[in-house]
Amino acid sequence: TTPINIHFTTFTTISVLALASSALAGKAAVKNNCPQDIFLTITRSDQSHTQQKLAANGGYYSEQLAGQGNSYGLTKNSDYYSATTPKLIWGASDSAGVVYYSLNDVDGNPFDGQKVAVTGTQPNCPAVNGADGSTKACSDSNDFTLTVC
Description:
The chain is of the alpha+beta class. The protein is about 15% helix and about 40% strand. It has one helix spanning about 1-25; strands at about 25-30, 40-45, 50-55, 60-65, 70-75, 85-95, 100-105, 115-120, 135-140, 145-149. The strands form two sheets. The chain has a six-stranded antiparallel sheet, with no helix packed on it. The model is unreliable at about 5-25 (pLDDT under 50).
């Protein structure tokens, strides 16, 4: 019976450690403080994508941040894939306990002249205050929020 108990104990310990490490991963959130509805288009590393409307004055979306190649695109109309639609894109990749993130615009900035910022919950995470394209890095135990307006 000893080998079975050791095996069970090892399996249980590994399972608990796996759950604990996955619980440490942070969230990605988008908050719309603008006076009009905006559209959030999410594209993941497998190229799957979803779109939803975020209501004016406080619309909010949040999900677990996982894997590489996550893109959170914000527009002021639902035609995200049109070359004439200005897009603000927050890219985020989680790798080996670190989240790498940047903020860019494509085909123009839909929030030009308005406040935009990506912030982490821990004070040591560098904020991104505009679509400058620079890449920042911080622990993936943070929750990250892109706030517009």
